[in-house]
Structures
1.
Amino acid sequence: MRKAYIDAIGMYVPSNVVTNKDLEGRMDTSDEWIRERSGIEERHHVDGECTTDLALKAAEEALEKAGMTPEDVDHIIFSTMANDYFVPGGGPMMTRRLGIPGTPALDIRMACSGFLYGLSVAKAFIESGAYDNVLLITSEVQSVALDFSTAGRDTAVLFGDGAAATILKATDEDRGLLSVKTHSDGRYAEDLMLRTPSTLDNPFLTNELLDKGYGRVVMNGRSVFKHAITKFPAVINEALDAAGVNKRDVKLVVPHQANLRITEAVANRLDLELHKVVYSNIQKYGNTTSASIPIALYEALQEGRIEPGDKIVVASFGAGFTWGASVMTW
Ligand code: ACO
């Protein structure tokens, strides 16, 4: 049966590294607090670059690794929390940046679950025979929407900027995506959101709204934590069942890098060994939202932690709330 598989991944993070110590100079926080609560040591922030600048660098690397030119891309799927423009989205912008006008492009706004939702669309596109080569871009510039005063410290210290580009291709071989399961629950929308610009307001963007802080990411950290540690294991088990794969046969679980404490709790609940079976690189990048899973996959591959034939699980949880998991044979 025709399946979709990940052929190549490219990644890019801005060169500007912001350490916890750097943040100490901007708000009332400490390196110790951030490490203890999140595991994060440093993250990258843009210095004038926009979302599609990061995306282009990642896409160029992925295309080169796949031995493709931009013209070989049949369809773009673009995931981000923050686009260059509110409208149009990053998908059409990437056809301009890659020099492939006319290429179909789809924008998805599923925050931290953008990669999982992207996989589910790419899988359907490829399995149905509609497209052979799909470019899934996940690019995030969050530092411009964070409050770096003490009032925003619970959120601002967690996020980082970064991008990844994943090329999915068709295969008849015994490899590729076995299952993708996704979910959402809008009852918790306000527990992690960026409100403005919003049609709740007319006009939807005013100085007054910005003064209220509505142009910043806000989060109810305890609610996110509580839901993440139950939803991650549940959806991973669901995706394993759908794929007919036993948990003990999984070589590596690559979760969305939300917070090391969430990853630890998920590993515990699944009875999987952290570091050996559950991958983490949040220490270097913070939470890069939809880019975090493919960036982690990229580094796991580079470290030789994934080999052809391995069973790999990826999983996410984030704003919406949204969550998902996928099982694949590498
Ligand atoms: N530096 C220093 N102190 C801080 C900071 C900071 N950056 N942020 C908050 N504090 C203070 C609080 O103000 C509070 O002070 P108080 O006791 O005087 O009121 C104290 O630290 C403890 O705050 P809590 O909210 O109790 O801290 P908690 O242990 O819950 O940790 C955290 C907060 C890290 C946000 C936690 O709730 C968490 O991990 N939540 C998950 C959120 C998350 O990981 N989101 C990632 C993005 S969403 C996603 O990708 C799924």
Note: The chain is about 35% helix and 25% strand.
2.
Amino acid sequence: MPPTSLAILGGIPVFAEPRHVGTPFIPPRELLHASLDDILDSRWLTNNGPFVCSLEDLLAKKHGVTHAVAMCNATIALQLLFRALGLKGEIIVPSFTFIATAHAATWERLEPRFVEISPETHCIDPEAAAAAIGTNTAALLGVNLWGQLCDVERLGQIANDAGIPLILDSAQALGCKTKHHSSDQPTAGGAVASVISLHATKVVNSLEGGAILTNDEALAEELRRLRNFGFAGYDKVVSLGTNAKLNEFSAAFAIRGLECLDNLIHHNRKIRKMYQENLADLPGVSLHDPPTSPTENHHYAVLMINADCPLSRDELMLTLWAENVLSRRYFYPGCHRMEPYAGHPATCQLSLPVTEAVAASVLVVPASSAVSSQDVVLISQRIRQALQQNGDVRERLQATVSA
Ligand code: T4K
């Protein structure tokens, strides 16, 4: 059957309901209901309850570390980690990341020093990080973007040589493995700790949530105190803590999700492969698939739209939005181009050409458990059609802008 007209040109959107990049995974409802009954029966709702403890055990085993400290979200987890490590001064971070990475540091009065990424992986460029280390550098923060690991081995060497800790923002990287280990090891490369997110949009979620993974027992103990007002016993407060606890239902939700993780990753891999095959012959469109990335959670399907594409990245995005395909230009325009960093004297003149080029080319398309093979076929068809009818599409978009 010939495809119907593009929605931007007056046709009917290919989907009646929006298709998102990260629609949450909902574990089997009967299992969630059973967990909820257990929680209600026990009347233990939060404060390090049995589900939180089980989740921590599962996450620690899954990632090959001795401690997982559950938190209310990954942003606060990063903040508490910086605080527990007593960091002061600058922290080296890639600019191409979700803004929470930089904001968490700034909330803790650290100054993010933004550095370049590798164009192949989109993760922090280790040599750029090494070049940025100075006397005021407190830590090196690698971000495991798109569910893949950054070059943790090289970053670990650099941090070690400089005598500073390597920290990993693994918010997107739950379940990822290094090429050197058969078990999951996000703290590889000597990282002192790694922070995962369990936000609704992640491969497995706890509605809101996160966890810090570490092999450092003293650090884990301090993090447990910091997330609970600084309590070290019933009446004993030993430090300036806050409330960063995860509740029991969130923990149960994540446990049920983790039971499905292998299937989810299998599904994600299939979806990404389908995008790759369906879009292979289109000019200027490719799936980001770095060769250095042996195992991932494949949670994001990231298209690179370059100058050979008959439509710009933004034109293609708007065309897809009209189809109810809510593709995203993560992490445009880069943290250094967002406030408060863009207006900050230390950052306002900063030029990061690779970051800016990547941020101008990335288009993340719907993937994850809520996207079916048939969805990928339809989305790919619409992309193909949009490129074929690029003249009409551009004309319509320009008319919309000037109206
Ligand atoms: N570091 C990195 C590298 C990160 O990527 C993130 C988070 C963090 C740190 C901080 O972790 P958390 O503190 O959040 O634990 C989303 C997520 O909100 C954010 O967690 C994630 N990274 C980021 C990459 O994406 P937005 O604002 O772009 O999208 P959002 O939340 O509006 O959701 C995306 C789509 O999913 C929506 O368009 C609708 C759909 N959706 C969303 C929610 C929340 C649903 O269908 N149901 C839902 O419940 O940030």
Note: The radius of gyration is 22 Å.
